[in-house]
Amino acid sequence: MIFSSKAEYGVRLMVELGRQTPEQPTSLKVIAAAESLPLAYLEQVVARLKKAGLVMSARGAHGGYWLARPAEEITMDQVVLALEGAIAPMECFVTDQTERVLCSHAAPDAGHTCATKLLWMRVQGGIARSLQATTLAELVEFSRREAGLHPLTAPAVATAPAAAAAPAV
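Predicted structure:
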């Protein structure tokens, strides 16, 4: 399954905001430059994140964006859902209002079921569990260990030593 650039850019944006102190909002222009991302596209992405209640913003000379909640309370399923919508490993795979998985190939009235539904339900469940189990705080810490101190990170923030053990992935 391939997520769109919305999800990639959105997660990268959230990690950058997770590195920042909420007392000092961060401009999208600064994040776009640091991450080499297109500013116009980031504006669209951050609008979705704001609508989902994951980020907050302030206008003006000292304005910018910050996390609406602590990074420990934000899971990646919340971020991906805000940006991508429901996770569906196949185009024919949809969830109805009862949260029951439907398959457009199945014809239940004719007694025909989708032979691969079990596989795609397991794939969807595995992805959903991984996203639910991963917090923004984990990604922020992982990025600090992987890259060292990032240019946007305040100097007062301590980082883990470069020789720290790699996290289980």
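Summary: Strands lie at 55-58, 64-67, 93-95, 101-103.
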